[in-house]
Amino acid sequence: MVLSRIPRIGIGGPVGSGKSLLIERMVPILHDRGYTSGIISNDVISKEDADRIRSTLSTKLGIVPEDLVVGLATGGCPHTAVREDPSMNLAVIEEMEQNHPELDIIIVESGGDNITTTFSPMLADYFMYVIDVAGGDKYPRKGGLGIQGCDLLVINKIDLAPYVDASLDVMKKDSMRIRGQRPFLMADCRHNTGVDSIVDRIISDILFDQTPKAHMQ
């Protein structure tokens, strides 16, 4: 299978759920497997997350060129820039595609928002939603468009469960009940636990196990 455009992943979730750290952990694994990534990080009034991601992936690890980590200060509701009017993000994606045809995947991080977050299909081919255990084990059963409708639900910070009196078993059962056949995975991004499994899903579900472009040359 030859993909018609560079696949795009949208990552949404509340403030502090671990979206940026997940990207920092995923991209090196993708890189080690031969896949080249571009990253767009949305925020309302700052570019702090993009600066942090760039510091990790470009400056420290040297695996992503600096111009392939782009920060967007959207200046409004996080929903708008990824759902109602994704034109800012689409313009950056178009530039990335023109200047870097070697890209295998483009990751678009939404600004921190609530459980109603979704991505425009014009912007993202695959939608991941990140919640964290620190929010309580009730989180999955709250439902909402993000939790129910995403292609992959990531339950992050499982290491904190004993400290916030949260039951991972309850979160698993509620996720299965709320999401039906849609997958979910548990992770501790701080310690890189479960991130390999998330990357496996990305490679199988959106890249369709296609050989990285760098390996085709």
Written overview of the protein:
With 217 residues, this protein is α/β, with parallel strands linked by helices. Helices cover 36% and strands 17% of the residues. The chain contains 8 helices and 7 strands; from the N terminus they run E-H-E-H-E-H-H-E-E-H-E-H-E-H-H. It has a 7-stranded parallel β-sheet, sandwiched between helices. Helix 1 packs parallel to helix 2 and helix 1 (19-32) crosses helix 7 (195-205). The chain is globular.
In short:
With 217 residues, the protein is α/β, with parallel strands linked by helices.
What are the salient characteristics of this protein?
7 strands, 217 residues, alpha/beta
What is the count of DSSP helices, taking H or I runs of 4+ residues? 8
Tell me the fraction of residues in β-strands, as a range: 15-25%
- The secondary-structure element order is EHEHEHHEEHEHEHH
- Helix fraction, binned, reads 25-40%
Mean residue pLDDT:
94
The secondary-structure class comes to: alpha/beta
The dominant shape is: globular
What is the makeup of the main sheet?
7 strands, parallel
Biggest sheet strand order reads 3-2-4-1-5-6-7
Number of strands: 7
Uncertain stretches of 5 or more adjacent residues: none
The Rg value, from CA coordinates, equals 16 Å
Instruction: Report, as a whole number of angstroms, the end-to-end distance.
Output: 17 Å
